[in-house]
Write the structure tokens for this entry.
Amino acid sequence: MDLSIVVPLYNEAESLPELTQWVTKVCDENKLSYEIILIDDGSIDTSWDVVVGLAAKNKHIKALKFRRNYGKSAALNEGFKLAGGDVVITMDADLQDSPDEIPALYQMVMKEGFDLVSGWKKKRNDPLNKTLPSKLFNLTTRKISKIKLHDFNCGLKAYKHELVKNIEIHGEMHRYIPVIARWNGYSRIGEKVVQHYERKYGKTKYGFSRFIKGYLDLLSISFVSKFGKRPMHLFGALGTLLFTAGFVIAGYLAYAKFFMDGYKMTERPLFYFGMLAMILGTQLFMTGFLAELVSANGRDRQGGYGITKTLNFNTNQDN
């Protein structure tokens, strides 16, 4: 199969018929074999009913529904697990991303050898309260990650099949998939200017809080990418420095007691700073040691998302 098109959605009942018709038209015209994977992220409108109706008419549509709203990262993560195409393309369900970009994105992965191609909404049709914070967010991410992309958060992206099978995203980390991909060794990351339309139906699902969560996830990814497999390099180094500083302070105070003015060590504030430094240093060192054991043995994620219904995965019936 040439393409898997993964579309996370939440309360997008009005846009789904037009979106799936548009995607189908583009793929058929370009003679691409494809599947459309719709991930209903716990919609509370009639989105799932619309999806069921569309799947009954279009053999290319597959879908699953979460029991509740888990977020875009969870939806993409499940979509990646189900995708079977040589190229996986993600796009939003609100019709702001253009399916007409699909053939070019496909060619950039298959013909030009990119591992990941990110869309760049160079001309955005969004209000200032979205565009200005987004520019600041992208600038910060670009500086920290050293990846030269203008729009990390663009929902329209194309991936090599191998890439999506070797990454896992959760929380709000869908914004940092290029960073996660680079961390996992996929360095051929490209960018394409894409058409961006005004929202036609409904309203945006994102508020200001997403930027706060986004920055926290960026810090998390930066930490894990540098020290996730070698936590002792961070905790051990900090612990050793603190313990050494505390030990030097204690040694100086002991020397002063016996060879200088003979005051009580516990009467000097410096004594307590030295003790605190040694205690914290020991704790940090032990944290690094335990983290190394956890990292070496690994861990399996338990549980999963509350998927209540699926369409066309392994069967042709709604389960």
In short: The chain has two domains: 3-227, 232-295. Residues 232-295 form one domain. The mean pLDDT is 84. The radius of gyration is 26 Å.
